[in-house]
Amino acid sequence: MIDKALPEVRAQDRALIQQGSDYIDRLRNQGADRAFVHSMRGAAVSEETALAQRNHFIVTTLNEARQLEADGQHDAALVKFGEAVHPEMDRTSPWHVDADGRPRVWMPASVGAAVHGVEESRAIPSADEMAAAAARMQAAYKYVFGGPK
After folding, report:
1. What is the DSSP letter of 29?
2. Distance between terminal CA atoms of the chain?
3. Residue 31's Cα: distance from chain center in Å?
């Protein structure tokens, strides 16, 4: 999705953004307590709280990326940006949100989670979902970096 949303950004920069997104999928970020970084929620967490947590994470992490960029740490800013936009990408997945965009309940590590990974790779967001996610990602990129470089 990064390549499709940000085609005007240099390939090496998109690769660093992907690294940041991949970091969010590491084991340390897999659990009900971190479900919001995947646009999901823990079983004991309301949809409203999960959305607030997700949005807070995105804004906070984008601000961290923006500060890194202002400090001249462009590569670190790109990685941090990738972390920030990960929930935006996950919110296009029917494994993460329902048809109305409400966060689904996090599944613990299990066979179900393994199936999730395989099935998610086959899930294709609608053109409208992709366009909306791309627009959010482009706006976030402009906020952090001021535009393509």
Report:
1. G
2. 19
3. 16
On the CB side of 3, CA atoms within 13 Å amount to 3
More confident residue, 44 or 121: 44
pLDDT digits (tens, 9 = 90+) for 57-97: 999 999 999 999 999 999 999 999 999 999 988 888 778 88
Q: Which residue has the tokens 């307590």?
A: 33
Burial of 108 (0-12, 13-18, 19+ CB in 10 A): exposed
Chain centroid to CA 44:
22
Question: Which residue is listed with tokens 């500060």?
Answer: 67
- Phi, psi for residue 41 in degrees, rounded to 5: -145, 155
Distance of CA 122 to the CA centre of its chain: 18
pLDDT per position as a tens digit, 6-31: 999 999 999 999 999 999 888 777 88
127 token code pair: 């053109």
103 in helix, strand or coil?
A: strand
Helix, strand, coil percent content, the chain, rounded in steps of 5 = 65, 5, 30
The H helix count followed by the E strand count for the chain is: 6, 0
Beta bridge partners of 105: 41
